[in-house]
Design goal:
binds flavin-adenine dinucleotide, alpha+beta, 10 helices, FAD/NAD(P)-binding domain, D-Amino Acid Oxidase, Chain A, domain 2, 3 domains
Length: 501
């Protein structure tokens, strides 16, 4: 089994250069995941010069680790939305997602994109008896919101109870889709820069973004799509964006005969299912087991829970891919999309539902940019503060999490197996040592540059992760996600020779 995303096999075939000079553009998009690329696509006809920058490479962030179900059926959500935000807002959320589904279907058809796009049923199901009440509440919410659905039985190995069937949902191969979108953007003159990290952004009058290499990008408008907005100022994103970990496995062969559909149950951590066409076979993808980063769960244990479900319920014993991913959720279940300053826009925090939301979000940002109006402005206002139990709970926990992460054992002599890591403290400094399969050592300072939490090694992704706010780094210290803006400091092996065996 390979510890990587199934979509890894289809990265963009060429690299884009790093920005090496100061430039001026009409629209700067920061981040080339589904959010940034969809925004660029929507704005193609505006006659504006568009520039996209990514600190890594196109669609290699969370988007590369998605399970790519395109749906408005986001688990057990509409009952909660009605209760917490009211009928009208819950209905708007549904309509927004429906518009995202329609838009992806339209783009796939208009651009003739071969990306295994399939229209399928979605099912919200009860895995256990205790979930039946959730199903009933969600059905009542669908009724109240006039959302079309029907009650249906699904394969009894998945659920013994009636499920809620949503017709007209979809799924696709995210990398094949975005690969074609990037081709279109390039052909239409969009400038793309990779390995170009934005470390500062000002929006007074003309916006100016500064790269880690100290180059300046002047732009009339900036769309911040870098997962954890690089534009911080007084928006307090760290108090309202909760990092969640999720896991995914794909079966080694097509052995499961159940309806080709999107499935999800009603509780968290959830179990979600879909099929992915891979090497000519229809393979089962099981995902979920989501939890907040601060829960300190072991990724390999969570993966074995997904495999256990596959084995016990559907007889799937062999798996080809297993991967880990992080996404952000807000404390009120709604994404952060819209204007945060006159000429700066943000799209993030999709609560693990970024396909339809990012696509509809791109249309929303286009409306804000071109008409200065959108029916979703109030609902998704990125500057809102939703002070509720979840907000208080998360922020109170962060203090405890920070203290817990800073406590790292002092070790004397370290003996490491290939492809493993150890974290230790030396003279007050937190240090991570990773030995790769060829026995090469990588040593980094594992105090997070964001708020000085201690990082933990993630055996599945081979990364150092911050459990407080979600900053993540490769084993050699390169920043890949989260609010931090710097790589980890590399430490020379000679500094630790008395520790290593
Ligand atoms: C396991 C899992 C399964 C999921 N399944 C589904 C699903 O079935 N359906 C669904 O709708 N959603 C799903 N999601 C959610 C969805 O995948 C995400 O919400 C979505 O991919 C986020 O896309 P993004 O473009 O906002 O972020 P990203 O893909 O992370 O893109 C952000 C980009 O910004 C770049 N960047 C970061 N910082 C900087 C900086 N300072 N300067 C320049 N560039 C920067 C990064 O390198 C990255 O390329 C899932 C998520 C997970 C974790």
């Amino acid at each position: 089994m390979e510890n990587k995303s199934i979509w890894d096999a289809d990265l963009y075939p060429v690299s884009f250069s790093t920005l090496k000079e100061n430039i001026t553009t009409d629209i700067l998009i920061i981040g080339a995941g589904i959010s940034g690329l969809s925004c660029a696509y929507e704005l193609l006809d505006q006659g504006a010069a568009i520039t996209i920058v990514d600190q890594n490479a196109v669609y290699q962030g969370t988007t590369l680790r998605t399970t790519a179900k395109i749906t408005w059926q986001h688990g057990y959500i509409y009952h909660d939305l009605i209760r917490k935000r009211g009928w009208d807002k819950a209905r708007l959320y549904y309509e927004f997602n429906q518009s995202g589904i329609n838009r992806i279907a339209e783009i796939v058809s208009r651009e003739n994109i071969a990306c295994d796009f399939r229209t399928v049923n979605g099912y919200l199901f009860a895995l256990a008896d205790k979930e039946r009440e959730n199903i009933e509440r969600e059905a009542a919410a669908y009724d109240k919101l006039d959302i079309p659905y029907r009650r249906a039985r699904i394969d009894p190995r998945i659920s013994a109870y009636e499920a809620l069937q949503a017709a007209g949902q979809a799924n696709f191969n995210i990398t094949k889709y975005l690969r074609r979108i990037v081709d279109i953007l390039v052909a239409r003159g969009v400038a793309i820069y990779e390995n170009t990290r934005i470390v500062d952004l000002h929006g007074n009058g003309e916006a100016i973004a500064v790269t880690a290499g100290n180059k300046r990008i002047r732009a009339k408008n900036v769309i911040v799509c870098n997962h954890y907005p690089v534009y911080k100022k007084f928006n307090f994103f760290f108090t309202k964006m909760i990092p969640y970990y999720s896991y995914s496995v794909v079966a080694a062969s097509s052995v499961v005969e159940i309806e080709d559909a999107n499935y999800i149950n009603t509780v968290s951590p959830s179990i979600a299912l879909r099929f992915i066409t891979h090497a000519g076979q229809r393979k089962l993808n099981i995902s979920g087991a989501s939890h907040e980063a601060y829960k300190f769960k072991q990724p390999l244990t969570e993966i074995s829970l997904l495999k256990k479900f596959g084995k016990e319920n559907l007889g799937v014993a062999d798996y080809q891919y297993a991967w880990f991913a992080q996404d952000y959720a807000t404390t009120d279940l709604l994404p952060l999309i819209g204007r945060i300053k006159d000429n700066i826009f943000v799209a993030t925090s999709y609560n693990k539902w970024g396909m339809a939301i990012a696509t509809a979000g791109a249309m929303m940002i286009k409306d804000l940019l071109t008409k200065n109006a959108s029916g979703y402005t109030a609902l998704f206002n990125p500057t809102r503060m939703a002070i509720n139990c979840k907000f208080l709970g998360y922020n109170l926990k962060v203090v405890g999490t920070l203290l817990k992460t800073r406590s790292i054992p002092k070790r004397k002599v370290v003996k490491l197996k290939p492809d493993s890591a150890v974290i230790l403290k030396k003279q007050g400094k937190r240090i991570g040592i990773y030995k790769d399969p060829e026995h090469k050592l990588y040593i980094v300072d594992i105090t997070c540059p964001h708020m000085r939490c201690g990082l933990r090694f993630n055996k599945l992704a081979r990364t150092y992760d911050c459990k407080c706010h979600g900053s993540r780094f490769t084993y050699d210290g390169k920043l890949i996600d989260g609010p931090a803006l710097k790589d980890l400091r590399r430490i020379a092996t000679s500094e630790l020779h008395d520790y290593l065996e």
